[in-house]
Amino acid sequence: MNTTIEKTALKNAVILISDPLSEEGLQPLREAEGVELKIRTGMTPEELLAAVKDADALLVRSQTQVTREVIEAADNLKIIGRAGVGVDNIDLEAATERGIIVVNAPDGNTNSAAEHTIAMMTALARNIPQAFVSLKEGKWDRKKFVGVELKEKTLGIVGLGRIGAEVARRAKGQRMSVIAYDPFLTEERAKEMGIAVGTLDEVVAAADFITVHTPLMKETRHLINADRFAKMKDGVRIINCARGGIINEDDLYDAIESGKVAGAALDVFETEPFVGHRLLDLPQVIATPHLGASTIEAQESVAIDVGRDVVRFFGGNPVRNPVNMPSVSREVLAKIGPFFDLAEDLGAFISHLADKPLTEVNIRYAGDLAEFDVRPLTRNALKGILKRNLGTHVNDVNAKFLADSIGIGVSEHKTTQSKGFQHLITVEVKAGDETHSVSGTLLNGLGERIVKVDDYVVDVVPAGHLLLIKHKDQPGAIGRVGTLLAEENINIATMQVGRSAAGGDAIMMITVDNEVKPEEVSRLLEIEDIHAVRTIDL
Ligand SMILES: NC(=O)c1ccc[n+]([C@@H]2O[C@H](COP(=O)([O-])OP(=O)(O)OC[C@H]3O[C@@H](n4cnc5c(N)ncnc54)[C@H](O)[C@@H]3O)[C@@H](O)[C@H]2O)c1
Ligand SMILES: O=C(O)[C@H](O)COP(=O)(O)O
User: Which residues are the signal sequence here (predicted)?
Assistant: First the structure.
């Protein structure tokens, strides 16, 4: 079966690993037959460009910068695996354009990062790193390192996703009050978690400690800046174990210097490695070199997760954690999976009906299918449509991107009403002043059927070599076509006819055993009252 991704043989897949991954975590890949693992950590950008050239898969953590240049240098690359959460080191747009799927390991390091955040907050509150260095220097200074308690303080959490939520739970265990801001945080969920919800400005104004846990994106770059520092309580403490760049480092420096911020605990930085920066000279700043996910458990877990997705991918199976295409739960996949081929075949079929460039594609889902997330089916239908002209580099990852970039508007429509069929997919295309449509279904135990082409009701298996002939409904037309095909030694496997009205426009859908050549199409067109002949190979 054609699954969400193009099938690719696992055999001889070259997997380049350019950041240190847990050896135990690499087991699923080592056990996969025919895989060549190339472990090349610490490469220069030039070395990476050369090494990636023949790689089928690239596995990274946060160090490797997977730029557009790297992606374009990789002639065979099909999948990039991020053994961790943040994908800000990967040019997702470039990967999507090239049809390269990006997968990550979103859950494996959640606990590790949450524990690190709590450790950093506690260390910051009690000046543990500074006191330790002082002691190492032979000083017994108890006065200088008086700290503050966490109990009864307010922790402001910006970004209440997987890690933010774990931090909230632990902070409550420290008897802190928690207030959080996240665009997806509802009052109900906050109530369930026993925390308060506020706007970003309310959160930063209320908090004694502020910790950020958003991804780094355009919208979150410098989310915490001079304006926001001005709104905070005097003596606030800041923690960043998410991504450098969410907090403006220059503004943080000024806020600490001015005394507005009492201290900061940083694990991540705008530029890494973060060495020799003036923030590190401030005694109020404690820091770790991006260690949030650096535990034996987390590293094993993220490497296993990403390795398994790579094995799934090369085995032609749906991946669990795609970043640049919709992810589908196992339950939904069980429902829509059987329709992947049908959607692609309907797309491929309709691509033969329009003569002018397509401007619009409408995909309609009727019946049971309408209850599910059908975006993967839409991508498959688009893939089928675009493959005719764009060839095999179209896949589920870039189908939507390619449609957008050539100006084809794509829309999805759903209705649970479906006359006569339990589930029906209709692909409609507009091309200039033409509109064409094809509808198909899956018949229990019998497989795919095309049941309608434009306004004609048919019953055709979308496979092999098809001939679609438009003609005038009158006696003899079908016989003449049959005779001509016999003369050309083309065997008819099935034939279906449909008409709008007696004596009006009609179509023949003929399945033949061998390909119909252009000169045979020309002969068919010479038959009286035949208006159009399309050959469709599926
Ligand atoms: N230091 C480390 O080693 C380490 C380890 C793991 C993860 N991380 C980083 O931690 C961050 C969080 O990871 P996660 O797994 O919890 O991700 P997540 O996707 O589960 O959570 C991110 C949350 O941020 C929210 N968000 C997005 N934009 C926002 C905005 N403008 N304001 C407020 N909230 C916003 C999202 O709604 C989401 O709930 C990521 O940046 C990730 O890369 C760092
Ligand atoms: O986003 C992540 O998962 C963390 O920042 C971990 O990054 P790392 O894999 O480089 O430790």
Answer: none
Q: In this predicted model, what pLDDT tens digit does every residue of 473-515 receive, in sequence order?
A: 888 888 999 999 999 999 999 998 888 788 888 999 999 998 8
Which superfamily does 464-538 belong to? Answer: ACT domain (3.30.70.260)
Does residue 243 have an active-site annotation?
yes
Q: Which of 213, 216, 240 to mutate to test the pocket of ligand 1 (most atoms within 8 A of CB)?
A: 213
Architecture of domain 329-463: 2-Layer Sandwich (3.30)
How far is C-alpha 397 from the geometric centre of its chain's CA atoms? 8
What are the structure tokens assigned to 227, written together? 């304006």
Catalytic residue, chosen from 213, 228, 290, 364, is 290
Same topology, domains 13-106+296-314 and 110-287? Answer is yes
C-alpha pair distances (Å), 47 with each of 43, 51, 55, 59, 75: 5, 6, 13, 15, 15
Q: Is 290 among the catalytic positions?
A: yes
Question: What is the predicted ipTM?
Answer: 0.99
Q: Which of 19, 109, 213 to mutate to test the pocket of ligand 2 (most atoms within 8 A of CB)?
A: 109
Which residues does a 6 A CB cutoff place in the pocket of ligand 2? 61-62, 83-86, 109, 290, 292-294
Known catalytic residue at 277? no
Amino acid residing at 400: K
Number of the ligand closest to the Cα of 241? 1
pTM: 0.84
